[in-house]
Write a structure and sequence with these properties.
The protein is of the alpha+beta class. 27% of the residues lie in helices and 33% in strands.
Length: 110
């Protein structure tokens, strides 16, 4: 198998205008935040409330800067606009509008 540097070796041959165009082209195809249905929102709400009341681990998929990130932890507090999630390493404040999905970390909690 040939081990080369991939696209790095071609960077020196490209004009700066071409590199700018490629960056712009890549940014045009960024993924948009998915609109959730009423049922999905209700399901997320029920899971979050159950995890908060019973202090269970919950896995949240959060939309941030054009991509989704997963956070797992225990919900410490909930307000109208955000919730505070305590993970193993830090405490994270998550806006409620950016939550794309929620599920309890263990299947036997159902």
């Amino acid at each position: 198998m040939i081990k080369d540097r991939g696209t790095i070796k071609w960077g020196a041959m490209m004009m700066p205008e071409h590199l700018d165009f490629l960056k712009e082209y890549k940014n045009d195809f960024s993924v948009q935040q998915r609109e959730l249905t009423e049922w999905e929102l209700e399901d997320i709400q029920q899971i979050i409330i159950q995890a908060y009341n019973q202090q269970l681990d919950v896995k949240l998929e959060v939309w941030t800067s054009g991509k989704t990130t997963q956070w797992t932890g225990i919900i410490k507090s909930i307000t109208n606009t955000e919730l505070i999630l305590e993970t193993l390493l830090k405490t994270k404040t998550i806006p409620i509008q950016s939550i794309q999905s929620a599920q309890l970390d263990a299947d036997y909690y159902d």
